[in-house]
Amino acid sequence: MKTLKGTFANMKRYSFLMKQLILRDFKVKYKRSVLGVVWSLLYPVLMMAVMYMVFSQMFKFRLEGVNYPVYLMTGLVMFNYFSEASNLAMTSVVNNFALINKVYIPKYIFPISKVLFVGINFLLTLIPLLVIIVFTGSGETRCIINIWYLVLPYIFLCMLMFTAGLGLLLSTISVFLRDMFYIYGIILTIWNYVTPVFYDISIIPSNLQPLFKLNPLYIFINSARKIILFQTCPNGMELLVMFLIGFGTLLIGSIIFKKNQDKFIYYA
Question: Dihedral of CA 82/85/88/94: which sign?
Answer without folding.
Answer: negative
